[in-house]
Sequence to fold (458 residues):
Amino acid sequence: MGFNNNLKLSIALRVGFILLTSILLVNAFYSNSYALTKLVLGIALSLQGYALVKYLDKSNMEFVHFLDSIKYDDFTQTYSSKQTGTSQDLLYDRFNTVIRMFREIRAEKEAQYQYLRTIVQHVGIGIITFNKQGHIQIINAAAKSLLDIDHIKNVDDLSALNPELVNSLKDLQTGGRDLLKIEKKGEEIQLSIYAIQLIRREEEFKLISIQNIKSELDEKEMDAWQNLISVLTHEIMNSVTPISSLAATVESNLEEVIDTEFNVKDISKEEIEDFHLAVQTIHRRSESLIKFVSDFRNLTRIPIPKKSTIEVRELFHTLLALLKYDLDNQQIHLQVDIEPDDLTIYADKEQIEQVLINLIKNAMQALEENPEKGKAKKLHISAKRNTPNRISLTIGDNGTGIDEDAVHKVFIPFFTTKKSGSGIGLSLSKQIMRKHGGNISVTTQMGIGTEFSLAFNQ
Fold:
């Protein structure tokens, strides 16, 4: 406010002097004054006008220079306050204050940038950012180490390392993931790649995170093999042990009756019946073992899905019509929710039917084995679109739930918590969902129930 008042006063004084000089000059013309007086007044009027224009122009140019400093981010300029007692001192003081504030803001932004840059460079996950043309903006030390490179300017430069890597980086969209094997110094490593797309100042660019998950995969693979071997050993021993025991018993009994004076008539009917029973048992256990091996082989022979568009409501209607008798017989309260009503999935109908039938039957068996008397049996089947590209189908029951130790093993082949069952259904279901590029998961709570979810990326 003081600056405005000083500026107005300075301009008013200058204009006042111009008016006064003009009046004197006019009066000189009408009063027959000396020519020299007229000339002096004319020159004075001209100089005063010129001074006013220069004063206004100087103020305007100072504003222009100040705004240019802001525009071009140049805050090195300072304005000297000469203590002239005019409004210019106040103007320069305000300019210096604003420039000082911008310097502090820029210094803070630079410190924040360096802080974040240091974090990015030292984080253990590889990070790469690049624009639509592939020009790299940021590549941290972890990414350079993983890819065994020193410096690159464009993602296309990675084609010498692995062309598939370049295609993956360019093709992945927001939320996209990919697993890729590359060779580094003669060693094969497994990379997990995750991408998000961002916009900065109207420019699109992509942020890629890269991790070497080989050690984690090796550990998970070892755990999977140990769990599988444990289950296989258990199942095979359950079949082989009685076969071996019965064979030894039959061999021992035969040794007792067979000698040099052996006569078949000496074998009693009871002994023959025992032999027959033993052979029957061996045959039955052998068939069980053959079926077990056949089921195991089926896990590796799931065909490639023949996908088509499936209406979820029609799919549920077909399945529940097949299971209606069992649902009514067990007095199970069924609830079906589909949102939106015309929801569709792109999948192999036969394979997904197989998965859903297995999950629904598992839920029905869990409800049948529920020891709580008088508790209403409830089965909830739902389908919904979680995101524009993700759909989930869910089968839930209010049974007793699955204990903590077992819930981590339910997808292991031949592992089962049921009194009867092969333990192959959930393993097949997981394989089928993987073939579809989706996933199957389970959540459970003891005494509350269990829920299996199928996730489809459409």
Notes: The chain has four domains: 2-106, 123-212, 217-298, 308-457. The first strand starts at residue 126 and ends at 131.
